Amino acid sequence: MLMGRLLKNTKYPLSQYFEAALITLGVYIFSSYSKEGREGSTELYGILCLCVYICSDSFTSQWQSRIYQKYGKPNVDQYQMMLGVNSFSILFTVIALVTSGDIPRILEFLRENSVCFRYNIITAVCSASGQLFIFYTIKVSEQQAKRASNTIQYTICD
Fold first, then answer.
1. What angle do CA 134, 56, 69 make, to 5 degrees?
2. Alpha carbon separation from 119 to 1, 5, 86, 124 (Å, rounded)
3. CB 12 within 8 A of CB 1
């Protein structure tokens, strides 16, 4: 909701802000009272990672919606959007690996465990194929919904 407000100036009813605050409070209470056997530093890191993920995810959907509104869906299709999102994901991952200095260790691990390299390639191909199937399913579902709506409208109006 905050990203929608910041990026697209979307206005939400006060009740939705209240619901979001209650959900956040519930998650906080649940996580703070179930701390048996956890270390504080890893918990703080986990919460930080979760917050970054939630902000990034909400930013992505709001930004995509803004791009579709600005340029129109005929000018920007879902495949271009998928390429952009995945390219930035690769860029952020490479930057994180370079700054942490983990690339040599990863390459050494993959050299010693060639099966893991194959599984990484298989996972990447399945992930990309899955995204394409999801986009196709959404496109077909939209077309079927439009046809059903037109059929109902034609039946009722005539």
1. 65
2. 37, 41, 19, 9
3. yes
Q: How far apart are CA 17 and CA 55, in angstroms?
A: 16
97, 106 contact by CB (below 8 A): yes
C-alpha 115/C-alpha 75 separation (Å) is: 41
Q: Which two tokens stand for residue 23?
A: 């959900």
For residues 96 and 43, is the Cβ–Cβ distance under 8 A? no
**Domain boundaries defined on the chain:** 1-72
Interatomic CA distance for residues 63 and 6, integer angstroms: 10
pLDDT tens, position by position, for the chain (158 residues)?
Answer: 777 777 777 788 888 788 878 887 887 777 776 656 555 567 777 778 778 888 888 888 788 888 888 888 788 887 888 888 889 889 988 999 999 999 999 999 999 999 999 999 999 999 888 888 887 887 778 777 778 777 777 777 76
Cα dihedral 52, 138, 81, 84, rounded to 10, equals 60
Q: Is 72 left (phi over 0), alpha (psi -120 to 50) or beta?
A: left
